[in-house]
Design a protein that fits this description.
Blueprint lengths: L2 H16 L5 H7 L4 H10 L1 H15 L8 H10 L9 H8 L3 H16 L1 H21 L6 H72 L3 E3 L2 E3 L10 H10 L23
Antiparallel strand pairs: 1-2
Helix pairs in contact: 2-3, 4-8, 5-7, 6-7
Length: 268
């Protein structure tokens, strides 16, 4: 296996998914990594990041039955296994497919990779992979570093608030000049819009009831009434209590990745 072929193929795949010219370093910057952190990841963890992101794609393109034909075709086309990439015609011949079918199949594979859900999953995974690698390198920002950024964020929000206030003041002055015309327009159209909303709401309610009775999703016109079975939920407290005496059930427990939320602080 040639790692250079694999890295080159991975870069070509990124360009196919996120757009021509997009580099892994660009995606790392977008995920909030500083320039120095990106340089470290690019230098000391590049191969690991590539392998783990390819694993994410591999799992996404593997069917519930365990078949990974889609990923194998993608891998051969881009050389993701470190072997020289093959043309779609060669892949078709090797697998006994027609050329037309293989081209159509490859287009479908790319569309799956390019979907918003897939791209979001890749970026989210990249965030946590990068964080894990930096922690492994014992790279962690100090408290003062984070504090300084929070103070900068405070200043940026304050500047935005001032700009917004200036905008609102000028907008209000303009609105006062045309307020009589706006009031007349409001009086004319409000009853019409309220009647339309009432009719729509009533019909939507009827459709929901009909589909519940029908028991299947229905599509017509520009709408699709999606029927979803009731969600199964578990009593977390009860499960934790049960697991205390039956620890074997803990193998089915999954915990998501940590996340960070930014909230404003009211000074007292």
């Amino acid at each position: 296996m040639d790692s250079n072929i694999k890295l080159s193929g991975f870069q070509d795949l990124l360009a196919a998914i996120f757009g021509s010219g997009v580099q892994l370093t660009d995606l790392l910057h977008e995920q909030g990594f500083e320039k120095s952190q990106v340089e470290l990841l690019k230098g000391q963890a590049h191969q690991v990041i590539v392998d783990e992101l390819l694993d994410v794609l591999h799992k996404r393109l593997t069917s519930e039955t365990g078949k990974d034909t889609y990923y194998k075709i993608l891998s051969r086309r881009f050389g993701l296994d470190g072997e020289p990439p093959e043309s779609l015609d060669a892949i078709a011949q090797k697998n006994g497919y027609t050329t037309v079918f293989t081209h159509q199949l490859f287009d479908e594979i790319l569309q799956r990779c390019q979907s918003k859900t897939s791209r979001d999953e890749i970026l989210k995974s990249l965030k946590y992979i990068g964080v894990a690698q930096l922690k492994g390198l014992h790279i962690s920002p100090g408290l003062e570093h984070v504090t300084e950024k929070l103070k900068r964020l405070t200043n940026l929000h304050a500047a935005e608030d001032l700009t917004r206030m200036d905008y609102d003041a000028k907008r209000l002055a303009l609105l006062k000049q045309i307020q009589p015309e706006l009031d007349a327009l409001e009086a004319e159209y409000t009853p019409l819009l309220e009647a339309a909303e009432k009719n729509i709401s009533a019909l939507e309610n009827e459709i929901r009831t009909d589909v519940l009775l029908h028991g299947e999703s229905v599509q017509a016109g520009s709408f699709r009434a999606v029927y979803t079975k009731g969600r199964v939920s578990w009593d977390s407290h009860g499960i934790e209590h049960y697991a205390a005496s039956h620890p074997d059930v803990l193998k089915y427990r999954k915990q998501g990745e940590p996340s960070v939320a930014l909230r404003t602080v009211n000074d007292k």
